[in-house]
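It is worth pausing here to work through a concrete case rather than discussing structure prediction in the abstract. The textbook approach is simple: state the sequence, then state the predicted structure, then interpret. We follow exactly that order.
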Amino acid sequence: MANSYTVSQGEDLKLVLTRTPPQPQKAAKRSSCGKPVLLPITRVRTIMKTDVNSSVNTSCLSQESTLLITKATEMFIAELAKQSSKVASQNAANEVTYKHLATAVHSKPDELKFLFDVLPEKMLAKDALAWVNSNKPD
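Step two, the predicted structure:
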């Protein structure tokens, strides 16, 4: 397999040969109807079929409904990442951490309340024990 290199005039041959060739960008996967998706549709379909709490009959999922759920999931993840990134930039951080993600979730209680148990805000052990003791039924 031959590598293609672009050599400018006067460039050292050793430097050219040690460079890595440019890699083509991967295109986003496409569903059968041509819509670009990033998440694997078959994995989403499998997750939907294994959801035992679902009241929907998942044995006959159409391809369109699976694509719709996949795109909605991607949009949700993108929005959550955007909110977390905004929190990180407000704290002058260069990367998004768990704390930024949890803060983003807890800053929108009406929209993201279902994630409170999954992404609780970090607290000290003594504070957690005090909270548990204060919420104990008598």
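Step three, interpretation. Residues 106 and 116 are 7 Å apart (CA to CA). The beta strands are 29-30, 36-37.
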